[in-house]
Amino acid sequence: MLTNLEHLGLAVHDLAAATALYTTLLGTPPYKQEHVASEAVDTVFFRVGGSKIELLAGTSPESAITKFLARKPEGIHHVAFEVDDIRAEMARLKEEGFVLLNEEPKPGADNKLVCFVHPKSAVGVLVELCQTIDSADGD
Fold first, then answer.
1. Domain containing 92: what range?
2. What is the DSSP string of 64-102?
3. CB-based burial of residue 2 (10 Å sphere; 0-12 exposed, 13-18 middle, 19+ buried)?
4. Number of domains in the chain
5. Span of the secretion signal (predicted)?
6. How far apart are CA 137 and CA 60, in angstroms?
7. 34: domain CATH number?
């Protein structure tokens, strides 16, 4: 079950410039910066009430973010929802006919296990499911 809007992921070309802009816009500095080697991205996270903003910049030509920005302007890349049990939610969505981009959850940024739902299954929006690793059944 989706329990919370976890974060909005924003694809950016220049992470330093976007970080400065969002620090000013939100009136607070980011709480975390992280490199996710498996996805070839650098991320910066801001807290906004009970949700977060994640800025993402690709670190290689093969990065999904780099490829996204080659086709589209900077902006919203994905919407992420917190789930209590990522595997159960993946099974439920698959049974409902959604196309998942990965068969197993994988480690993501900010201490999460993640899975993505194909945008063609969700009216053009890339949806990310997130479960905090500490609550992921021993993962």
1. 2-135
2. HHHHHHHHS-SEEEEEEEEES-HHHHHHHHHHTTPPBS-
3. middle
4. 1
5. none
6. 33
7. 3.10.180.10
